[in-house]
Structure formats: structure tokens, C-alpha cells
From TrEMBL:
HAMAP family: HscB (MF_00682). Signal peptide: none annotated. Residues 5-77 form the J domain. Pfam families: HSCB_C. Gene3D superfamilies: DnaJ domain, HscB, C-terminal domain. It comes from Pseudomonas zhanjiangensis. The gene is hscB. The keyword Chaperone applies. Interacts with HscA and stimulates its ATPase activity. This is Co-chaperone protein HscB homolog. The lineage of its organism: Bacteria, Pseudomonadati, Pseudomonadota, Gammaproteobacteria, Pseudomonadales. Co-chaperone involved in the maturation of iron-sulfur cluster-containing proteins. Seems to help targeting proteins to be folded toward HscA. Belongs to the HscB family. Keywords: Chaperone.
Length: 173
């Protein structure tokens, strides 16, 4: 068995619904305990161990605090290997993606800050809805395909939301 489960590091049960505030507090507590500075006078082996623990803790925290990666991690815990990129077998969502992309391009071309704000809030609502749907079905073996489809949608919306932030920065300059 490899490293302990990300949830176990934080003494949490595997769940999609997490209190992110509580997770951040727990992360800071644990990070202080394994911070390499605390091991400056320790043996080389202890320093290396502290560094490895610190790296594991950081990876676990980054994975769990971010909804799409937390969803992917939960599905992987169930035992399936999930390819990173997959052609979305999801025609309705592919159509939706095309509309979002076109709309984002139009907002970019028109430099419409108010429009970007509206787009961003619609995107946030879509993300919240996806998160809620995933939370309901991720641990039901009968709904495995649905959970994977939702996780992939979450990844797309996350990427789109990153592009929206980049557009905001460009329009702000």
C-alpha cells in the first residue's frame, strides 16, 4: 500500500462535501508540524522524511480543496483508473460547451466587463449545481457512469472559469 489516503491525512471520512474552512485550518496545523524549518538540526533522514510528509500534505490539500480534483480523487478511490482526458460522450454538454465558448469569445471581442460578470455568475451557478449533483451520486455504484460524466463536466467548467479570470485580467489592464 502506498501513501495514506488524502482524507485520512486530515482525519476525514471520504466525502465530496467538505468544510473547506475546516480543511484549511487542519492543513495549517499539520503543515506546521512537518515544516522543513522545524527539522533544520535533525538528521538527514528525518529532514528527508519531513520534506516527503510536507509534499504529501500539500498534494492532499490541493486535491481536496478543489472540487473537480476532489471528485476525480473520490472516483479513483473507488478503484477505477480514470484517463485524464477523454472525449466527452455527452452530446448535450458538448453543445453547451460550444455555446459557452462562443459567448466567451464574443465577450472578449466586445470587451464587455458587465457581460463577463453575468457570464461568470451563470458559470458559478452551473458549477454549484454540478457539485451538488456529484455529491448526491458519487458513492452509488449504480450511478458510477453518471458520476464520471459529472466529474468531467466539472473539469471543463473549471477550465472555462480559469479562462474567464484571464479575460477579466486582460480587460482590467
Amino acid at each position: 500500500m502506498g501513501s495514506p489516503c488524502h482524507f485520512a491525512l486530515f482525519e476525514l471520512q471520504p466525502s465530496f462535501r467538505l468544510d473547506l474552512e475546516q480543511l484549511a485550518v487542519r492543513y495549517r496545523e499539520l503543515a506546521r508540524g512537518v515544516h522543513p524549518d522545524r527539522f533544520a538540526d535533525a538528521s538527514e533522514r528525518e529532514q528527508r522524511l519531513a520534506l516527503e510528509q510536507s509534499a504529501s500534505l500539500n498534494e492532499a490539500y490541493q486535491t481536496l480543496r478543489h472540487a473537480p480534483s476532489r471528485a476525480r480523487y473520490l472516483l479513483a478511490l473507488r478503484g477505477d483508473e480514470l484517463p485524464l482526458e477523454v472525449t466527452v460522450q455527452d452530446p448535450d454538454f458538448l453543445l453547451q460547451q460550444m455555446h459557452w465558448r462562443e459567448e466567451l469569445e464574443e465577450l472578449h471581442d466586445s470587451a464587455d466587463m458587465a457581460g463577463v460578470a453575468v457570464f461568470k455568475s451563470r458559470l458559478k451557478a452551473a458549477q454549484d449545481e454540478l457539485n451538488e449533483s456529484f455529491a448526491v451520486c458519487w458513492d452509488d455504484p449504480q450511478r458510477r457512469a453518471e458520476a464520471e460524466r459529472l466529474m468531467r463536466r466539472m473539469q471543463f467548467l473549471d477550465k472555462l472559469s480559469h479562462e474567464v479570470r484571464q479575460l477579466e485580467e486582460r480587460l482590467d489592464d
